[in-house]
Amino acid sequence: MHKKLLLFILIFPLLIIAQNDSIIKGKIVSEIKDLGGVHIINISNIAGTVSDNQGYFTIKAKVSDTLLFSAVFLEKKKHVVTKEETTEKLVLIPIAPSTEYLKEVVLTEYPDINAVSLGILQKAPKTYTKAERNLRAAGTLKWYSPLLIPIGGMSIDGLINQVSGRTNMLKKELIIERKEILQEKTLDYFDSEYLVNSLFIPEEYVDGFIYYVVEDVPFSNAMKAKNKTQATFLLHQLAVDFLKLKEIPLKIEDRKENTSQQTKEDKDEK
User: Fold this and answer.
1) Which residues contact residue 86 at a Cβ distance below 8 angstroms, ignoring those fewer than 6 apart?
2) Residue 22 within a domain
3) How many CA atoms are closer than 13 Å to the CA of 72, on its beta-carbon side?
4) Number of structural domains the chain divides into
5) Same structural domain for residues 92 and 121?
6) Are residues 79 and 137 in the same domain?
7) Last residue of a domain, one of 149, 178, 207
8) Of the residues 7, 65, 104, 237, which has the maximum number of CB atoms within 10 A of its CB?
């Protein structure tokens, strides 16, 4: 009962003062040219938005609300909304570039020198793609009640990820990245010449066919398992379905000849 009463006492003032929110239109000013993706969080009412490439943003706020600006290439900045800014057409927010942000880093790779060869690790650590690293970084944060922020209940980065929907966005990016990797792997196994000459996919449809096959779960699983024989068999079936879907005519004798040739190749591999 006491917990519910405390929660009501904390939330009720927020519901009252939220009615006086104004729409703040602003622009981030910095030496950085591309200002897209800067997270703007209203700490006072737990609202958030993201700037466009020019640094423009729109957010709900009222007088004395604190806006937090955060991006890897900018210094974190807190800005308290003034009475004048609630009526201004455009609020300018100057932010300095982050001193830790490096515009260009040149690395020299030495593939034979690593943590395992130096005896630091017993086995090579698991590597992650860019999308996987971003999602893991966002997923390591624990969520607590936003009402406890003033007493240190939640990190600023966790708040940004939760309010802006960044975690869901990163999950979508990971799915897209994995499909792109599978598309490249498919073209490594079966080049365009094979798709055109053996599967009779018109050259102008090759890219579309690759997008089509990576959506097929059995084919994707076969490729992930590096089972080229099964992947080849499934690819031929998918080619037939794709041609029918696109209403592309295919001579019966060509299909028979192709199937016979594929069967012979499968036997030779065995």
Assistant:
1) 22, 24, 61, 62, 63
2) yes
3) 5
4) 3
5) no
6) no
7) 178
8) 65
Neighbours of 168 (CB within 10 A): 11
3-state secondary structure of 2: helix
- Shared domain check, 79 and 119: no
Q: Look up the pTM and report it.
A: 0.40
From first to last of its 270 residues, the chain has per-residue pLDDT tens of 555 554 455 554 544 444 567 899 999 999 888 898 899 999 888 788 899 999 999 999 999 999 999 888 899 899 999 999 988 999 999 999 987 654 544 555 556 656 566 665 666 666 666 666 666 665 544 444 454 445 445 555 556 665 566 667 777 777 888 888 888 889 888 988 999 998 889 988 888 899 899 889 999 899 988 898 999 999 999 998 988 887 877 544 454 455 455 545 555 554
Question: Residue 69 is encoded by which pair of tokens?
Answer: 């600006």
For residues 256 and 253, give the distance between their C-alpha atoms in angstroms, rounded to a whole number. 5
Q: Which amino acid is at 101?
A: Y
- How far is 132 from 173, CA to CA, in rounded Å? 9
- CATH number, position 38: 2.60.40.1120
User: Are 21 and 58 in contact, with CB atoms under 8 Å apart?
Assistant: no
- Domain for residue 221, yes or no? yes
- What lies within 8 Å, CB to CB, of 269 at 6+ separation is 229
